[in-house]
Design a protein that fits this description.
By secondary structure, this protein is α+β, with helices and mostly antiparallel strands. Helix content is 50%, strand content 18%. The protein contains 21 helices and 15 strands. The strands form five sheets. Strands 5-6-7-8-9 form a five-stranded antiparallel β-sheet. It has a four-stranded antiparallel β-sheet with strand order 3-4-2-10. Helix 2 runs parallel beside helix 9, helix 15 runs antiparallel to helix 16 and helix 19 runs antiparallel to helix 20.
């Protein structure tokens, strides 16, 4: 196949864009517009003159009820998305990448981005977030006076410096020899230009995003588009030719100010006067399309980025691309399709039903309070009858000529219907007053087990929605890492674990695996807190029993537990309460402690002060921990031996008492043999104690309390056994 020509590329791009737009406009746009209307309080019901106009706001109530819980799921944890290393060599890079992307996410307004994405997914089927690197030229003006020729030359040696204004004067001055000489004096206004780049994360309005109808995801899509409006002057500033921009179809031909965007803004925006006053403010439709196309003619389509202007989608710029910069958020995805269902779609019919019932109740109350009248117009003054003023008199020629028509009050019996409709909505969405923590009496007459089951069933819907949204969060952070590695400076400073460290983004793997670490299981904070407290207590026991080099729990892990406990209570800045800790910092600290312990032990031995040795030994964490472990092992062994000896003696005594045919002399002889063996064993244990104490003194520089251990050996001897 031959390489595609420019007109062929233009035609293919235009056809692909128009097909994607037609698909969204014909199948998706109407659903989004209807959902937005219902969110704003509209219904499809007709209204009768003189009847109630009240409208139920089920859609808005459900969306606003679900959004805080979903936001809390992601914002409770400081690191809700974590990169995982592929090998041991990637551990440090994965930790730095996790911290860096979360730092960038918060820096660029991640809260608003996440809020908009979740809102759009709840109302408009899908929330779209775009990630890109924005390079910007910044010009700074500086004024200099009384510059010499050498200073001017040095200033202009910078290629990024441009002279805006320049004036020169000649001044006379005396040199060191007292001779008069001239000197050039310059005054300058310069412009210093510098390039700055930063990552941009922005939520895109749903009406600006288009995708082909066969796509199941953004990655397998044939084309993905972002259609927006820009001013003509902005396009010229981007480097495009003025004549080309002037020739593009603008706002007078097509505008994005359609029904959907008008519903979002709440009003129409007229920019026609801007063009008259300033042609550079003319609005131009710009389409950024990411299309898989076989330009080279080798039979393999590759992704290209096309920047198109106007309604004819004239290509202004094109280049090969590696990844479409969009992340999609769904709460209820449809299998094997890109667009799923929104939460608003699930309850729109319920809003109609509830509105109808609510209007009937209010109309009934109104008729009961102001009933219709049966009158004899020949006997009453009709003007008085038509006067609804409270306390007004009705003039009548005959008593009983005005009779109210009794309207039965049925609103009370209708109220359970509203409760039933609310229950149906709760079953569909999982959003209830109880799940939002608003109804204090919801579980008043419910058992603890029933309350837990009800809460779990309600939270299940929210957890599924949160998990679906988490997939969009994963793609967002993958894009952030990809863009950072591709565009960021190789080395920069970043605050990590309370310290500023240099990081090299060029060595990061942009395809790192990821894990979701979100706070799923809303309403289980007490269970999580109890689990964290138990975990911390277990960590403490392991540390105290086996020492710092236990191989199971580190200071870093204990600090992480404390940080999670604070985060669960709403305190995210753990550095305010606990010093930052990393494995590298922990190893360094342990090495310093060991070195200090050796120095203190050597100094104490030179001084020959046993009290000083004991004091130093108490401050040596590593040595003390090991010494305590050895002492506990030795004491346990001696206690076990002592118990075993006592049991053997009791067995022997019982055997001697039950034995028949033995003489008392033989019994006494055996008794003395056992007694002698006991003495021998205890002497042996005393010698082993002295040997072990000497070993500990030589290894750790700390004396063992031998007398205390001997006291534990002071068990009753055989001579005291009855």
């Amino acid at each position: 196949m031959a390489q595609m020509k420019e007109d062929e590329i233009q035609g293919a791009v235009k056809a692909a864009i128009e097909a994607a737009i037609d698909y969204v406009d014909s199948d998706i746009r109407d659903q989004r517009e209807r959902a937005q209307k219902y969110f704003d309080g509209a219904v499809d019901l007709t209204h009768e003159q003189g009847r109630s106009k009240v409208v139920s706001t089920k859609v808005r109530d459900v969306v606003r009820g679900a959004k805080p819980g979903l936001m809390r799921v992601f914002l409770t944890n400081d690191k809700f998305v974590e990169f995982t290393p592929k090998g041991p060599e990637d551990v440090q890079n994965a930790e730095q990448a996790t911290a860096y992307t979360h730092w960038v996410f918060n820096k660029v307004g991640g809260y608003n981005v996440l809020s908009n994405a979740i809102h759009d997914s709840l109302v408009k089927k899908v929330g779209i977030v775009k990630v890109w690197w924005n390079n910007e030229t910044i010009a700074e003006s500086h004024t200099y006076e009384n510059l010499s020729d050498e200073e001017v030359e040095m200033l202009l040696s910078d290629d990024e410096v441009e002279i805006v204004e320049h004036s020169q004067e000649i001044e006379m001055e005396m040199d060191e020899m007292g001779m008069e000489m001239s000197r050039n004096v310059h005054s300058m206004l310069i412009s210093h230009k510098r390039e700055e780049g930063e990552m941009v994360i922005e939520g895109i309005p749903p009406e600006e995003f288009f995708i082909d109808g066969t796509a199941k995801s953004i990655d397998d899509a044939y084309i993905v588009c972002h259609k927006s409006e820009k001013y003509a002057g902005d396009l010229v500033a981007m480097g495009f030719d003025q004549d080309i921009i002037d020739g593009l179809a603008g706002e007078e031909d097509e505008s994005l100010s359609d029904e959907e965007s008008l519903l979002r803004f709440g009003t129409s925006i007229d920019t026609s006067n801007n063009t008259v006053n300033d042609p550079s403010m003319r609005v131009v439709v710009v389409t950024e399309a990411y299309l898989k196309i076989d330009i080279e003619g080798d039979g393999v389509p590759t992704l290209h980025k096309f920047l198109c202007g106007g309604t004819n989608y004239e290509i202004l710029e094109q280049e090969p691309w590696d990844k479409a910069p969009f992340a999609d958020f769904h709460v209820d995805p449809e299998p094997h399709a890109f667009y799923g269902r929104s939460l608003a779609e699930l309850v729109m019919n319920d809003q109609d039903t509830t509105t109808s019932v609510l209007r009937g109740i209010l109309d009934n109350v109104a008729l009961v309070n102001t009933p219709r009248l049966e009158v004899n117009e020949d006997l009453v003054e009709m003007d008085d009858v038509l006067n609804n003023e409270i306390g007004a008199i009705i003039r009548s020629e005959q008593i009983g000529s005005v009779n109210p028509l009794v309207v039965p009050f049925v609103a009370g019996s209708t109220l359970p219907a509203l409760q039933y409709l609310d229950m149906l909505v709760e079953e569909k969405t999982g959003i209830s007053k109880m799940s939002m923590g608003l109804n204090a009496d919801a579980l008043q007459n419910t058992t603890a087990t029933g309350a837990a089951l009800t809460a779990q069933a309600s939270a299940g819907h929210v957890e599924v929605m949160a998990r679906n949204l988490a997939e969009g969060m994963k793609r967002l952070f993958q894009l952030m890492l990809h863009v950072s590695v591709k565009n960021s400076p190789d080395e920069q400073m970043m605050r990590l674990n309370g310290e500023f460290i240099p990081i090299d983004l060029s060595v990061w793997d942009a395809s790192m695996d990821m894990e979701i670490n979100v706070g799923l299981g809303t309403g289980k904070e007490d269970v999580k807190a109890a689990a964290l407290m138990q975990t911390f207590q277990t960590q403490q026991q392991i540390w105290q029993t086996y020492g710092a080099q236990n191989g199971l729990v580190s200071m870093t892990q204990m600090r992480n537990t404390l940080s999670d406990m604070l985060a669960l209570s709403g305190l995210k800045n753990a550095d305010r309460y606990y010093a930052p800790m990393t494995p590298e910092k922990e190893q360094q600290l342990m090495a310093q402690m060991a070195q200090q312990a050796q120095q203190d032990a050597a100094m104490a031995q030179q001084q020959g002060d046993p009290m000083a040795q004991a004091l130093i030994g108490s401050e040596q964490i590593k040595a003390q921990a090991r010494m305590q472990g050895d002492q506990m092992k030795m004491q346990g062994k001696m206690q076990a031996d002592n118990i075993k000896m006592q049991a053997n003696m009791q067995v022997k005594a019982a055997e001697m008492q039950s034995a028949q045919g033995k003489e008392l002399a033989d019994l006494q002889l055996k008794y003395r043999e056992l007694q002698a063996g006991d003495d021998l064993n205890r002497d042996k244990m005393n010698q082993e104690l002295l040997i072990e104490a000497a070993k500990i003194l030589g290894q750790y520089g700390t004396a063992v309390d031998v007398e205390r251990v001997r006291a534990m050996q002071a068990a009753p001897r055989l001579g005291n056994v009855q």
